[in-house]
Amino acid sequence: MPVRLSLAIKIFAPTFVVAGLSFAAATFVADQTAAKMIRRSVEARAEALTAQIRHGAEVGSLSRSLEDIATRGDVIDAVVLDARGRRVAGLGVEAGQRPLPRGRLARPAPAGGLTFKDGAREAAYAAPVALGPDQRNGTVVLRLRTDREAAAERNLGLAILLGAAATGLAALATALCSYWLVVGRRMRRMLAVVEARRSGDADAFLNFDEQDEVGATARQLDRLFADLEARIAEQARTAASLRSALAEASALRTALEAHASIVIADPTGVILDANPLFERLSGYRREEVVGRSLKVLRSDVHGPGFFAEIFSTLMRGEVWQGDACNRGKDRLYWTRTTAFAVPDETGRPERFVLIGADISEARATLAELEDERARLARSHEMLREMQALSAVGAAEIDVATGATWFSDETYRIFGLSPGSE
Fold this sequence. Notes:
disordered N terminus, alpha+beta, 5-stranded antiparallel β-sheet
């Protein structure tokens, strides 16, 4: 199981390490620079004092030269040794200072050398010197105070400033490099995948393995891409089904509108729409009825209860079917009507749809048949009465079937009851 490292750790851990190393390096460089400056300063002072002692030795005033040197506050001790290392002349030491041993001395360094002692608070310097007219070789040994601590204090601020500046620059550079290495390249990859997705490449995925915030975000994006692909495919199937259903519905509507009058109204009875066949049947143009109440189509053939029953049936969500006589612009016409309510998302009726097939001609034919039937019934009754008055019977024979029919008067003439065999 890989260890999940935070993105912040990946970016800032190298930054802190580099910053610490940079500060330490800057401090070391500042310290070494200060040490070199102090060494050059001490060497210059020691060389000047040595030159003064040499001059005194040449002119025979070595003791006077040492006395002049003693007045300097930075000289701890000054000793002149002969070729055998024995003390020829020297200064008295201050209270609390360790004096140079008398007699043979071990030189602190080769002639011309400089060494620091006691935590670099003092320095020992040795240089050759000619003693007397015979130019015998000797050595001058100096012990000097150094201003190392003062110089260190003066350079401490500079060291800290340089260290802070180096630390800041290193931290900034490291953070930028870390960001580029850890985040930048992956972010550019993310942008490339997103652009490929926008271009229609369904196979573009991030596939990050890193166990950090960027890797977790990339995996979430990959899952999101997969979900989007599944949803897009499902939407494509749904759209295809909807297109098929809409095509079927359009065909059905076309067929229905060609054979039926269609009126759409809201639950208050205000007409919202009507089809062309309604215009032909009623004589109204669509613009004349839209926005008006369905009452404009009511005829006096039906009573108030007829329309109340239709309304209550639709409000219950049921379908009403029946024949209705409607008032057109200049005539009455009959339709075999089917009415139903279209509910909203809460189930309450949102619209009423009234579909009517024209049966005006059928109703007229039926009325004519009813009139003819009544006329025939009256004629038959008159014939029966005339036969009874004239005692004349009548009979009919169906040639095709052989069925016979006798009038009531025929039965009475033969002394039979009407309808007997």
